[in-house]
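=== RUN LOG ===
request id: a7f3
mode: sequence -> structure
chains: 1
length: 233
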Amino acid sequence: MESLAAAQQALGVSFNNPLLLKEALVHGSYTNEFPHLAPATNERLEFLGDAVLGLVVAAKLYTDFSHLNEGEMTKLRAVLVRGNTLARVARDIGLGEYLLIGRGEEATGGRTKPANLAGALEAVIGAVFLDQGSGAAGDFVLRLLDSELERAVSQGIATSSKSKLQELLQAREQQAPTYHVIEATGPAHERWFTVEVRLGDTVLGKGSGKSKKIAETDAAHAILRKLLSNFTE
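=== RESULT ===
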């Protein structure tokens, strides 16, 4: 139970039923070697957690990124729920240390294998959902994926929107847009930025978000849609 207490501390979650967390950490190799200690693997919880994860991420994208269309939200969701992303998050919180794996799996580096880490993280999400409900599970997912969401936006849609806007304006106006933070509100851990995009002295539009990059993306995407709409009218 000491290891479960340490795992809860690492996860930042206090389980009402710690046995759910234990099940979430059981790899199939452990069950094969020690069926009397853990008769069930984490695969069922992984299945549930995968569904919870997908819904939470989809709702977050829909709510916070109103400028994104279906295709763009689909791409971002795919980036956030893919195995490599989940494995990276699991590795960052040291989840592999608490996995229950068999001796053979241990010998081959099972605690660091991306598939094991990603599956265990999904199983933990499923366990949180069963233990504390959808609200707590949603908060847990968003806390874990906060930096990954910002990374995905800044490296994916952000780059695309800003580069497309720059290409369009340079082609039509022979000028590149500039981005200016005009407002930053909220406490240090919950900052909200408003960015203004200008072409010379002309304000083209504004955007907002929890980081400068997200705010810039929001503005660039909205301006792009407006410009392309006017251009085709």
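=== NOTES ===
Residues 83 and 118 are 5 Å apart (CA to CA).
The domain at 2-151 is CATH 1.10.1520.10 (Ribonuclease iii, N-terminal Endonuclease Domain; Chain A).
=== END ===
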